[in-house]
Structure formats: C-alpha cells, structure tokens
Amino acid sequence: MAQSELVGQTPQLSDMSVTTVRVIYPDLHGVARGKDVPLVEFDRVSEHGLAFCAAVMSTDLRHTPVLGGEIGYPDLIARPDLASLTLLPWEPGVASCIADVHPVTAGAAAPADPRGAVRRAVAAYEELGLAPIVGPELEFFLCERDPSVPGGLRRYVDNLSMVYTVGPQADPRGVVRQLTEAMAGMGMGTFAANHEFMNSQYEINLRHAPALTAADRAFRLKSAVKDVAAQAGLLATFMGKPFNDQGGSGFHLHVSADRDDDNAFADRNDADGVSDELRRFTAGVLAHAPALMALLNPTINAYRRIVPDSLAPINISWGWDNRTSFVRIPAERGRATRVEIRIGDGSANPYLAIAATLFAGLRGLREELPLPEPVSGDAYRQEAGGAVPTTLEAALDALEADDHLREAIGDAIVTPFVAMKRFEIERHREWVSDWERDEYLHHL
C-alpha cells in the first residue's frame, strides 16, 4: 500500500504534520517496547514488520535475558495493527501504532504474545455466543526527583486526605488533567480523573470496552502516563507499593459479557438481578484465584500491599458491593451488571491480567461451576475460600500447578514468565536491603 493510500484510508494519519509512527508492543512486564519509524518508511514496515530479538520477552527489569541464549537468541517480527493507529497529542508529529508479534518464519517457535492471549480468550467466549467487556481501573503515583531525600524521590503532592480532590491543589501543574483531556481526544475512553486515597496517588478512569480494546487502552494509558510525566519533569510509577507510609496502587478489572446486544450477566427476572453466567464466571475466577495472583500481582513488591484493611483482598471470596472481597458485585443492574476483580496490582501487564481473568471465568462458564456463598461485612475477618498467596513465589507455584490456566494462557507465555520471575526472586533473596541494615547492623 502506498503512503498516499495509507494516509487516505487511515484518518489518524490524515494530519500531514505526522513525521514518525511509533510502533510498540507489550513485553511480559507490560512495558512498551518498539521502534520509531519515519512516516516515509511506514509502508514498508507495515508490509514486512520490524525484527526484534525475541529474548526481550524473557529479559528482567535489571536487563538480564533469562532465556533465549539456549536457542541462539532468535528474532520475532512485530507487525503494525493499522486499526490501532492514533496521534499522540503530547508529541506533535508522532502517531502511535500497536503491533502484533509473530515468529520470523512459518514453523518457528511462537514468541510470547500477551496481546494474542487476549485475542484467544475473546475467541473462546465467541464460541459460547459471548463478547467479554472489560473496564480497567488503574492507580499510579507521581513523584519528583530530589537527590536530598532518601531514595532520590519525593511525592508530587504530599498532603493527607486528598482523596477524590481535583484542581490545582491536587494537581498543581495540571499534568493529570491535561493527560486525561488528551487521551479522551484520542478516543481512549478516558472519562474522569482524580487524586486517589494515598498521597500523590491518582486514577484516570477508562470506559468499559470489548476486551482487546480495553487491554490496548490500559497498555497505552500506562505508557502515556509515564511519558507525559517525564515531559513535566516528574516520574510516574504503577509500582504496587512504592512507599512504606502509604498504601498501594491497584489495577481493578470490571468484567461483563454481551450477548445479542444485551448484557449476559444481567437477569431482570432473578431476585438479585444477576444471571447464571455471572455466577459461573465468578466461580471460575475464584477457582483459579491462587494462580491468577501470579499474573495480577507479578512482582515481589506487589505482595506488600496485600494486607488486612488495605482495600486489597487477602482471601478468596466474593460479596455484594463489598470492597473487602476478592470479587465484588457492584450494585448497578441491567446493562451495568458486572463483576469487579479487586486483587490486581498496578504493576500487572494489562493483557496478561485480562486474558488470565477471562480464561479463569471461561472455565466456570463451560463447566457451570457452582458459586460459593458470599461474604457479608468485613471479609478481612473471615476465612471464606482460603487465603490468597502472600508471596510471588507461592503465586508462581500456584500458576505452575494450575493445568487449566497454564494451558489456556500457553507455554509460550507461562514458561518465560515463570523463569524470569523466579530469577527475580533469587536476585531479591541475595540482596541486602536498607531494612536489614537498619534492623541488624548496629546491634548485631
């Protein structure tokens, strides 16, 4: 396709000020990897794709390729999905395009493909006549670099009791407001933003959407927040619990399913207003909750926020409009009927979190799993379905032991993910922390 044809058929590139297309794809951490492509070269890249070393999918955040050498570090190919093209308002001249990853040649080993996992989950729901709908909720902290404070970072706004506040007191430079407006203009479905419960913690709300669209939006949101913060001289982090004196950042997923242009999770003749499909989906999520923890809480740090009275659940439970449970059924009914999975950590890869949750719920739907009794009141004080794993190591054990979820997600993802995370655990085990020095060095 000639460049002139591409511009004519793709509204996002009709703005002739575009000079570069940023082609990105998610690694297993959910970090955006990619290349900037001059617009004059984009036709060729669209046809042939871009080559990357496939070991990027098993490289940890300290830059160690955990797997890949044993097979000679082969390539993967990233091919732009032209339907995902959009302008980046905060970078004039730049458009962004999400790519799908493929093996270099037919018959070669498939690379880890988080976006493809969501596609496969959606296809499985379509076999049941369902279309999964997801509304992601992501929290993050904004910080300023300050070499005079421990760790070199101080919080952008560091006042207590700023929850649900807006305006210059909550966002002095208007960074969050401007970003929300810009993403809304991109068609990202951002409809609200506010300061959250913790000091310098924010949330930008995304509208519910078909599962792959929702995953793409959450992926782009995380990348956009970090980029725009960097332009403002700030650092944004989705790390679950970056501060000892503050609670953590969650990644909640609101899930429903459409059938015949209606919400299959609603039943207007049911006493509770919910369908058997909602109950079975929820039962599937709870049945696979231990294994889900590894993908929804994929860091050592994530487990520091999973403590009583933190608004992060500590046991496997569900409840009616209950924010202390693993799965909450919000009070809205009809088209708004949905489940909310509340365990996710801000560090989770949106594609893996959504795919794993959908695959867990899918088993409940297919096998018509029974839903246990709901918790009432404070779920932190009830055992319900047992405790969730409290360490990354225990969560990885649960994932490896979960034949259904492991097979559904696929070894191409699970094998490098587990290897990379176990390597991370071992590095952490060997590292002497500030806490240890403060606790032991003087006295022992």
Describe what this molecule looks like in 3D.
This protein has 444 residues and is α+β, with helices and mostly antiparallel strands. It has two domains: 10-112, Glutamine synthetase, N-terminal domain (Ubiquitin-like (UB roll), Roll), CATH 3.10.20; 119-409, Creatine Kinase, Chain A, domain 2, CATH 3.30.590.10. It is built from twelve helices and 17 strands. The strands form two sheets. Strands 7, 8, 9, 10, 11, 12, 13, 14, 15, 16 and 17 form an eleven-stranded mixed sheet that branches. Strands 1, 2, 3, 4, 5 and 6 form a six-stranded mixed sheet that branches. A hairpin with a 5-residue loop joins strand 1 (20-26) and strand 2. Helix 3 runs antiparallel to helix 5, helix 3 packs parallel to helix 8 and helix 7 (289-296) packs across helix 9 (392-401). It is globular and about 60 Å long. The relative contact order is 0.12. Mean pLDDT is 93; it is low at 1-11.
